[in-house]
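Support reply, case 0932

Customer input (verbatim):
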Amino acid sequence: MHRIFGGGAQILQNGASEERGENARLQAFIGAIAIGDMVKSTLGPKGMDKILQPMPGQDGGRGQATVTNDGATILKAVWIDNPAAKILVDISKTQDQECGDGTTSVVVLAAELLRNAQILVEQRMHPQVIIKGYRIALAAAREKLESLATDNGKDDVAFREDLLRIARTTLSSKLLKHEKEHFATLAVDAVLRLQGKPNLDYIQVLKKAGASLKDSFLEEGFILEKKIGVGMPKKLENCRIMVANCQMDTDKIKIYGARVKVDSFEAVAEIEAAEKEKMRNKVDRIAAHGCNVFINRQLIYNYPEQLFKDAGIMAIEHSDFEGTERLAAVLGADITSTFENPEETKLGFCTMISEMMIGEDKVIKFTGCAENEACTIVLRGASTHILDEAERSLHDALAVLYQTVQDTRVCHGGGAMEMAMSAAVMEKVTDVPGKESAAVEHFAMALRQIPMILADNAGFDSQELCGQLKAAHAKGQHTMGLEFTHGGIADMEQLGIMESFRSKMSQLCSAAEAAEMIIRVDDIIKNAPRQRDGGM
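Our regenerated output:
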């Protein structure tokens, strides 16, 4: 317990603890390095999967096991107590939101930077000196990465090929790697349909168990997992669509806890007639908008459905909430709750609504939507586990392609950029006087660990391959990287292994900043745990 002058008043509450100096730093380093070691084996095209088994009672009932090699998914599912480890989990989540891909790489790189910093701290180097050296090294690495990036944004054909290469590279480390050609084309077609619009919501991913992964397809337009009302046409053209969120089941008295006492059956009939009249007026107001399709988020009971049918309006009920939001955006409609002002209500439009079969299920397909960039990727697969992992893989590919459309620069994969940045940082060492040069050198060593881990995960001799790669980069062959089909080094340009520049830059900067934050730690204070009632 921390006391003033050893025997003075106690500052921290009973049960609170404080770790200072070396102990605090060691605790922070060990926690962060352990997180890096946990996800290290999932890195790269030959990375292994993890099974995440939730605690009983978590996620409802017994909980569903998850099989994945996505860094962000693994780290979200793990309960962590170490504060430094939580920082790495946060940068992984940020990388997932920002770029979609590189969630494992950013954690592994940060852990390697901390592992090298720990060596320097044990040699009695001050943390601020290490941070200064790391900053010099980061500037040199960023400069090298920017100089090696290429930009084909002006040439549509070359840019599409770049996007396909990035998608293939991203999917290589995922479950979809055996069908990566097929899924890369699906993802690129879907993202290019957006035409640069900043809204990935227009791309819907629909999971349907059955068939195999290669039976997945891209459907232009929007698909809603609902059925068209009974007795209504199953196909309609030139649709003017009202999307609503209102009660269409008030043909029954629904005031909870209310009791209506009547003295005759005639009075009951009058109440029912009044309710029906109220509903008829509501349907008439909806029909006055000039729509020929009515989609409601809530239920539509039999009587209003019959009224819609008589008015020649197709009614679709109970579209799920997320589906309704996306549907309104895609059709260019407002979600309406009141119907008094038809002139202020914006109706959606599509050229055709029809029913289609996916597997054994009927779904509604909207073709030629007002926002014509919309599309649906239908995923097929043998089980829900496979579909969930396929969706995560596809999300990563879509997100990284979307970021590349925003920032069209690309760079080579296969560990080529890390080795090139490492070589640039090592050149910088000769210009750095004083102790900082050791920190700069260790930053380069941390970058070199990424290709080594890639080779280790593939079961090859990492020392041999990285030695060859280092020699190639020393000669200025900066497109050379690791190739795992035969286990050697090869030209990434010829193999078409590309990565998003923005994703790579984000990995580098996030990992360096997180490592710097953890290196600064010299004191960890834990508050006393909350006491239960009764002082137990």
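We compared this against your earlier run and they match. Two observations from our side: Confidence is low (pLDDT under 50) at residues 1-8. The first strand starts at residue 17 and ends at 20. Please reopen the case if you see a mismatch on your end.
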